Each structure stands twice: as C-alpha cells, then as structure tokens.
Amino acid sequence: MPSNDARILLQAAVPTAAVGAVAAVVSGVVAGGKGAIGAVVATVVVILFMGIGLYVLQRTAKSLPHLFQAMGLMLYAAQILLLFIFMAAFKNTTLFNPRAFAVTLLVGTLVWIAMQTRAHMKAKILYVEPDSGTPSKGDKPEKTGHSS
To answer: Where does the sequence pass through the membrane (predicted)?
Structure first.
C-alpha cells in the first residue's frame, strides 16, 4: 500500500478506534458488560468494513481510474447497506447489547467517513500523473504555434 493510502487509512482508523474505546466505556457504564462488548464488536465491524472498502477503492483507482467515482459511490452505498444488514441480523442477540452496538456502529461510521474525508483533503495527491517522457533541462523545447 503506497504511503498516501496507508496514511489515509491510519488517519481514519485511529480516530474511529478512539471513539470506539470511548463508546465501550460509556456503554459499559450504562449497559454493563454486554454494552461494552457490543461497542467493541461494532468498532471492529466499522474498521473492517470501511478499511476493506478503502483498500478496494484504492486498488480500483490504480487499475481502472475511469471507474473511480462510480466505484466510490457504489462502494459507500454497499457499505451502508451491509452495515444495516449487519445491524438487523444482530437486532435480537443476547451476545451483547444491541442498542450499544447500533449506536457505536452509527457513530463509528460517521467518524470514519469524516476522518477519511479530512485525510484525503489534506493529502497532497497528484490528480495527473507526471509524464516520464517530458524533456529534461538539457533538451531544447519544441517550438509550436505562430512565431512573429
């Protein structure tokens, strides 16, 4: 993974993990041990889903740049749909507190998206690849156009 991609992943995952830790403490106080477990599971799910999505998006950007925007929109829609399906599947579980799980999942997803957006806006990513065939300083530039 190139350094910009790893940096964006790190700048999104660390705040999400921090928010997940705070949510686990708050859920543990409010809902007991099952609340803390629900918050931890939700944090892991968010980091996994969004991290895999970021990886897929970066791979698409490198191999099929013309599909990048459409792939990004489709990927976010699919991620949100999968998160809702995941929430619905564990709605009535007794393994952990579903309310703590759902709230942490929602907050973690919003934090991930906000931090990924922030990291991407601050990154100095070239949107045009420099051409390796450009003339060097020793070469004489080709004259084009009208000379008067």
So the answer is: 12-30, 36-57, 69-90, 96-115
